[in-house]
């Protein structure tokens, strides 16, 4: 008598079991990835920044170069960063002995680091699609993103501090003619470094602060929110230096415009004034040198006098623009150029008075008796602060005390 056939020996059932096992295995193959993804979502915080962000990404890279905790890696990506700030191009930097420096940051791949008491793993990768860009992801344990937010804010603060501690000077872009380019990044200077007559600098600073705080009032009155100043006086009395110091105190940019530039024409000047960067002082120096009785003073000036006036009044001019014009010869200026509405304040910067002479001397030699003698010796002489400073520097040297900068 034959043994009964086992249930599991039936071919049809075996096939069904194999199919079910295959389906189960196919489904279970995704489980590890799902568990890992679920774990990342609930137990790990991640922050991602990519190079399409023109501020955050460079700020993060620069911060990683400086952060000692991120120097624990042994694979770096190096980028050259211009060391100089006063020249317009890398070629100018090299010619003037300021080669770029290398910024090092963790290279492509995954890096596990101990940063500020927390384990941090950093992933850097190159993304290739319609565009090519870099992506940096920072991850740490915990659902709260506080640590990563603080890390990123520290990078932002470091970059912002570097920018705000410097004075950006812009000139018209010679390649486009309708926008501005940063010509240099210089050190900010305190208003006290410009030795003016008592109260002059402080009065202008207060006036500017009131102007920037009065936008709503201008709107209520229906008046364009713009302000113009004329600084006049002999050479060396501090006109340009005062503008630089005011911009430094208020954390503004300076845009310098030469009316003799070949790209400054009746057509382009409207575009330039409309494109002045926000929070900027617009500086036009020696404005008397460009026109003689409303005609161009020389062949280099491509701008007409009427075109200049129209641009100053133009509706396209940026709201909040502050214009400073300087001149050594106020008597040569056409009254239409400095009428109310175009120029709101005229400030004369003259030769050094007794108080200026005393303060200039004390910058170099903190000796009150010697300062009084210096004032008596120079009383009544028509001397600019710049000339006085030059004499004192020759006498005492630039490094004798805190270095002053009187005027330009």
Can you describe this structure?
The chain has 408 residues and is an alpha/beta fold. It folds into three domains: 43-164, no CATH class; 167-348, 3-Layer(aba) Sandwich (Rossmann fold); 354-396, no CATH class. It is built from 13 helices and 15 strands. A seven-stranded mixed sheet has the order 8-7-10-11-14-9-15, with helices on both faces. The longest helix is centred in the middle third of the chain and has 19 residues, at 146-164. It is elongated. It starts with 10 loop residues before the first helix and ends in a 12-residue tail after the last helix. Residues 401-408 have low confidence and may be disordered. Keywords: ATP-binding, Nucleotide-binding. Residues 19-194 form the BCS1 N-terminal domain. It is a single-pass membrane protein. Belongs to the AAA ATPase family. BCS1 subfamily.
Brief account:
The protein is an alpha/beta fold and 408 residues long.
List keywords for this structure.
alpha/beta; 13 helices; 22% strand; 408 residues; four-stranded antiparallel β-sheet; seven-stranded mixed β-sheet
* Major sheet strand order: 8-7-10-11-14-9-15
What's the total helix number? 13
Assign an overall shape.
elongated
CATH class of the largest domain: Alpha Beta
Residue share in β-strands: 15-25%
The fold-level CATH name of the largest domain is Rossmann fold
Protein topology:
Elements: H1 11-28, H2 31-43, E1 44-50, H3 56-66, E2 76-81, H4 90-95, E3 101-106, E4 109-115, E5 118-128, E6 132-141, H5 146-164, E7 166-172, E8 180-187, H6 200-212, H7 215-221, E9 227-232, H8 239-249, E10 253-256, H9 268-274, E11 280-284, E12 291-292, E13 295-296, H10 305-313, E14 322-327, E15 345-348, H11 354-364, H12 368-378, H13 385-396
Parallel strand pairs: 7-10, 9-14, 9-15, 10-11, 11-14
Antiparallel strand pairs: 1-6, 2-3, 4-5, 5-6, 7-8, 12-13
Helix pairs in contact: 3-5, 11-12, 11-13
């Amino acid at each position: 008598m034959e043994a009964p056939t086992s249930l599991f020996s039936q071919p049809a059932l075996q096939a069904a079991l194999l199919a079910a096992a295959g389906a189960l295995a196919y489904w279970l193959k995704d489980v590890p990835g799902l568990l890992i993804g679920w774990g990342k979502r609930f137990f790990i915080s991640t922050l991602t920044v990519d190079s399409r962000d023109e501020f955050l990404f460079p700020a993060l890279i620069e911060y990683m170069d400086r952060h000692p905790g991120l120097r624990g890696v042994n694979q770096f990506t190096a980028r050259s960063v211009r060391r100089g700030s006063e020249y317009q191009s890398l070629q100018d930097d090299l010619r003037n002995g300021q080669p770029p420096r290398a910024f090092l940051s963790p290279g492509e791949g995954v890096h596990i680091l101990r940063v500020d008491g927390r384990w941090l793993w950093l992933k850097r990768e190159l993304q290739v699609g319609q565009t090519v860009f870099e992506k940096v992801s920072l991850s740490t344990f915990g659902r709260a993103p506080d640590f990563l937010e603080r890390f990123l804010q520290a990078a932002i603060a470091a970059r912002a501090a570097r920018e705000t501690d410097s004075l950006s000077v812009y000139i018209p872009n010679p390649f486009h003619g309708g926008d501005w380019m940063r010509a240099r990044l210089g050190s900010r200077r305190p208003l006290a470094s410009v030795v003016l007559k008592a109260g002059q600098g402080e009065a202008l600073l207060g006036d500017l602060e009131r102007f920037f705080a009065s936008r709503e009032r201008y709107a209520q009155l229906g008046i364009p929110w713009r302000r113009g100043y004329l600084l006049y006086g002999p050479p060396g009395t501090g006109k340009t230096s005062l503008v630089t110091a005011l911009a430094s105190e208020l954390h503004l940019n300076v845009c310098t415009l030469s009316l003799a530039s070949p790209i400054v024409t009746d057509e382009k000047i409207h575009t330039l004034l409309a494109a002045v960067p926000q929070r900027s002082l617009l500086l036009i120096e020696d404005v008397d040198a460009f026109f003689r009785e409303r005609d161009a003073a020389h062949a280099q000036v491509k701008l007409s006098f009427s075109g200049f006036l129209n641009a100053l009044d133009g509706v396209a001019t940026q709201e909040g623009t502050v214009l400073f014009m300087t001149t050594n010869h106020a008597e040569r200026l056409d009254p239409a150029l400095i009428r109310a509405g175009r120029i709101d304040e005229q400030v004369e910067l003259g030769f050094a008075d007794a108080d200026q002479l005393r303060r200039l001397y004390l910058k170099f030699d903190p000796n009150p008796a010697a300062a009084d003698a210096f004032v008596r010796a120079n009383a009544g002489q028509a001397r600019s602060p710049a000339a006085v400073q030059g004499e004192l520097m020759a006498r005492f040297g630039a490094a004798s005390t805190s270095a002053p900068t009187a005027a330009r």
